[in-house]
Design a protein that fits this description.
Blueprint lengths: L1 H16 L5 H8 L6 E5 L1 H4 L8 H7 L2 E8 L5 H12 L7 E7 L4 E8 L4 E8 L6 E9 L1 H13 L1
Antiparallel strand pairs: 1-2, 2-6, 3-4, 4-5, 5-6
Length: about 160
């Protein structure tokens, strides 16, 4: 009986020590905390979004399926600290870290999921001093579309 209890205790400790948060789990965990600002914009709402008269940008927007936004700047310091720790231990899964600025624990990250032909998800996480922000954009956007929108923004 002692052996069984000891093995269970070791199993629980190892599970807790190596537990990692997924991208979606990060949003689910922190979107309901006190002081958090979170919003999910589904595809049917995205179809209503228009960017002025720029047809190129609007064409790309139509390829976005959903957007999730999370801001923890007004939360208690302990909540922001938990968010930073969860980001440190983040299980990226199929995401590739595209850009990182700042230090290991603080800074901004841009994670991308997809292949050479289509980007299915982009995640922006900012855990700079005082900032805790999360933005996730899901869709089926070609890298060519992203480049064209970036080129248009440079011209503006």
């Amino acid at each position: 009986m002692k052996k069984i209890l000891m093995n269970l205790a070791l199993l629980l400790v190892s599970i807790c020590a190596f537990s990692q948060t997924t991208i979606d789990g990060l949003y689910r965990t922190f979107s309901d905390v006190k002081g958090a600002k979170s919003i999910t914009i589904p595809k049917y709402m995205m179809s209503l979004v228009k960017v002025g008269t720029n047809t190129e940008k609007n064409k790309v927007l139509q390829k976005v399926d959903a957007v999730k936004l999370l801001e923890l700047d007004n939360c208690k310091k302990s909540i922001r600290k938990k968010f930073r720790k969860a980001v440190e231990k983040l299980d990226k899964g199929d995401y590739v870290e595209f850009v990182r600025s700042g230090q290991q624990k603080k800074g901004t990250r841009l994670l991308v999921k997809g292949d050479e032909t289509v980007i299915t998800s982009v995640v922006f996480i900012d855990v700079s001093d005082g900032d805790c922000k999360f933005v996730k954009v899901d869709g089926h956007i070609s890298p060519k579309d992203v480049s064209s929108v970036l080129d248009l923004n440079m011209d503006d």
